[in-house]
Specification:
Elements lengths: L10 E3 L8 H6 L10 H18 L5 E6 L2 H12 L5 E6 L2 H12 L3 E6 L8 H10 L4 E5 L1 E2 L4 E2 L15 E5 L18 E3 L12 E6 L1 H8 L12 H8 L11 H17 L1 H21 L15 E5 L6 H12 L1 E5 L8 E5 L7 H17 L6
Parallel strand pairs: 1-12, 3-4, 3-5, 5-8, 8-9
Antiparallel strand pairs: 2-10, 6-7, 9-10, 11-13, 12-13
Helix pairs in contact: 2-8, 9-11, 10-11
Bound molecules: pyridoxal-5'-phosphate.
The site of pyridoxal-5'-phosphate has 15 residues, from helix 3.
């Protein structure tokens, strides 16, 4: 006999998912509709309008892909990159690396521009790589979740004097927490996820494509090899024709709709300000304890805060104590930062002054008990 699953109530302060508000969870329990029901199509229309507001874009093709953030990444790469095409790929952490791998798997040739994990990319090096290559696509991760580093995506504009290009930006850990400003930054394609700054459960990947990006896709020599993630086929379901493509995840889209409504009710500037001030309060508390942040202040994310683990402290033991004794989840470092940092997510409904104060107090207690010298 398998009993009903009753998971514990955790405070999710890791790299995602973040906690989901009751109002959003409630949407998951409302009656299911058919995926071509006019009422459901109205829900999708609402999502499109609200996603445009949150991405800050007028892009017609703005919708949620059925799948997690990685499906959003693959949608952008598989549709835009053609066989043999060079793509300038900025890599300063795990997710930049993943984009490079995807470019390669979809037949492109990544021209990598690298910086150390937690270090900003040097735009001069990006310019040089772009100038020397034949690339018509440049990819960048806005919020590198593996390090807590924020890359200024507006700087991509400085490449336009060399030649025109399609700028693809990963906004998985920034959308809903930081301004992404697709149109003001003249970005052409971006993908995100439902489970971080947007405050819905994991399972959907919002994407947006500019006319210029769509034009490049229309002019491909061969259609994209992906069928499921083909942006044209997905758009034909979402836009006025509503042609069947796959059975839309109905309840997940209800949840996304509600999460977006919550965001717009709060207002984007107020939401960004909440994320900024809670992150800064957290950093002030961490530094007051004598601990260090990995990333320099001007490049720090508000949504993901990487704290250097003090010498001699057992990373896994501290995280296990937080989870088992206090029901608090935080993230470990991985790749080049394995065992070196804790990744603290303050995103969506998790970015509150209460969570900041609670985590600081609990961390101080555990670290003292574990023998760290902290003030
Ligand atoms: N890109 C970034 C920057 C991420 O942080 C993540 C996941 O954390 C992804 C892509 C992939 O998203 P998902 O795990 O939802 O597939």
């Amino acid at each position: 006999m398998i009993n009903e699953f009753n998971p514990p109530q955790r405070i999710l302060l890791g790299p995602g998912p973040s906690n989901v508000e009751a109002r959003v969870l409630k949407a998951l329990q409302t009656p299911i509709l058919g995926h071509l029901d006019p009422e459901y199509l109205r829900c999708l229309g609402d999502i499109q309008k609200m996603l445009r507001a949150v991405f800050e874009t007028q892009n017609q093709v703005t919708l949620s892909i059925s799948g997690t953030g990685g499906a959003g990444m693959e949608t952008c790469i598989a549709n835009l990159v053609e066989e043999g095409e060079e793509v300038v790929t900025c890599v300063n952490g795990f997710f930049g690396q993943r984009i490079a791998e995807m470019v390669q798997r979809w037949g492109g040739t990544p021209v990598r521009v690298e910086a150390g994990w937690g270090q900003p990319l040097d735009m001069q090096q990006v310019r040089e790589a772009f100038r020397r290559s034949s690339a018509r696509i440049v990819t960048m991760v806005h919020a590198e979740t593996s390090t807590g580093m924020r890359q200024p995506i507006g700087d991509l504009q400085s490449l336009r004097d060399i030649r025109d290009a399609i700028f693809v930006v990963d906004s998985v850990t920034s959308l809903g927490a930081h301004p992404v400003s697709i149109d003001a930054n003249r970005l052409d394609a971006s993908y995100s996820c439902s489970q971080k700054g947007l405050g819905a459960p994991p399972g959907l990947a919002p994407v947006t494509f500019s006319e210029r990006a769509l034009d490049k896709i229309r002019k491909r020599k061969q259609r994209p090899k992906t069928w499921y993630l083909d942006i044209d086929l997905n758009d034909k379901y979402w836009s006025t024709d509503h042609l069947y493509h796959h059975t839309s995840p109905i309840l997940m889209n209800y949840a996304l709709r509600e999460a977006l409504a919550v965001i717009l009710e709060e207002g984007l500037p107020a939401r960004w300000e909440r994320h900024r001030s809670n992150s800064e309060a957290f950093v002030a508390g961490i530094e007051a304890m004598g601990l260090r942040m990995l990333v320099s202040p001007e490049h720090r994310l508000w949504s993901l805060n990487a704290v250097c683990i003090p010498e001699g402290i057992d990373d896994a033991r501290v995280r296990a104590r937080l989870l088992n004794e206090f029901n608090i989840e935080i993230g470990s470092g991985f790749g080049a930062l394995k065992g070196k940092v804790w990744r603290i997510g303050l995103m969506g409904s998790g970015s509150t002054r209460n969570n900041v104060l609670l985590l600081l107090e609990v961390l101080r207690k555990i670290l003292r008990e574990e023998g760290a010298r902290i003030s």
